[in-house]
Amino acid sequence: DEQIQNAIDATALEEIPKLERRLPYLALIANIATLLGLLGTIFGLIKSFNAVAMADPAQRQAILSSGIAEAMNSTALGLVTAILAMVAHSILSTRANKILEEIDEFGVKLMDLLSARKYRHTSEKSKD
Question: pTM of the prediction?
């Protein structure tokens, strides 16, 4: 029984890293995308205020709105990317956990099946 359990555990331990291998990258992408969006916002606003400081009064409104639009676009792109990465991470993590639970469940069922066969085979030999 112990050898069977060890074989089941060893097989499960081989498969677990394969399921979770690249999941942390999605979380990393989500965090970096958010930060890059915020960084783009800051750069866009800096660009706007620098341009406004040097522009003549007739052009200030157009320059300011252009820079603010750039800032907001980078924020939106960063957030959309982060949201998609977080959703993908959540879906894949849930699937990985479900597969791990199934591995445990089927491992226990396999152990029970093999133990039942062993005891049935042992009791048949003792009758003979």
Answer: 0.73
Torsion angle, CA of 47/48/49/51, rounded to 10 degrees? 80
Instruction: Go through 13-29 and write b for each residue having 16 or more CB atoms within 10 A of its CB, e for each that does not.
Output: eeeeeebeeeeeebeeb
What confidence tens digit (pLDDT) does each residue in 65-106 have?
Answer: 888 998 999 999 999 999 999 999 999 999 999 988 998 888
Q: What angle do CA 102, 107, 111 make, to 5 degrees?
A: 150
**pLDDT confidence of residue 128:** 55
Residues with Cβ within 8 Å of residue 21, at least 6 apart in sequence: none
Q: Which helix (H) or strand (E) holds 95?
A: helix 60-127
CA-nearest of 101, 90, 47, 106 to 71 is 47
